[in-house]
Amino acid sequence: MCVWDYTSLYSQNHLRFYAAAPPLPSQRPGPPPASRSTLSRERSSSAGTPSAGTSGVLGFRAPPDVLEGRLRSQDRPLAVLLEQALRIKEEVTAGLQSSHGSVQIEALSRKLLENHILTITRIVKQLSMGIQELEKEMAQRDSVTSGVAHAVQNMDQKNTAGVGDLRGRVARCDSSIAKLSADVSFREQQVIRLQREVRELSEAVNGQLKELEDKVGKKRMHADKGLAEKELREQLSKTLQGHKDFKLKGITDCPFTFTS
What we know:
Blueprint: H1 3-20, H2 33-48, H3 67-73, H4 75-98, H5 103-253
């Protein structure tokens, strides 16, 4: 395989991993100018829109409910990177074996392989850091989840106790209401009975008052009749007494005296 064909294949298939990884300070000069321009174009195009596979590593913080999915999804790029590195190593080895006559091509292939290995190492380190960050976030999420679960459990216990207390109060209120209803019913019956007794007593008193009025009327009539008779007798007695006095006076004033 020609080195330039290998460089083109390498640029087309693996430059997205170069875009995800920042350049190393001690990194040696990269591929030939053609590959360098292609790499710069790929980096400029990928700078505005980072890929979905590396967004978690480059600082994008996913919500807690997808951390486990991200942790599992980052294992696949790592395996793909290792597989591609082994395949590229085999291709470069085959290219080196087929190009023993050219020292420049061999040096260029070695530099390309070294750059690729350094880039893969950098990406693996970044993936490891991303995985550690995800593990920390998962631990924090588990801690928060356990705290929330504990708080929910305490709240549930308090709510259960409050509901039990309220049920007890409701039961006591129902008992008091039933007792008051029974008392009210008993008092209503007593009031009805007292009203009936008062009505009967009122009728009896009215009857007795009527009888007394009749008796008083009769007594009054008898008294009036007795008073009238008494006055009549007194007048008769006065009249008789006047006649007697008149007769006695006439006898006393008479000039004739009777002698025996």
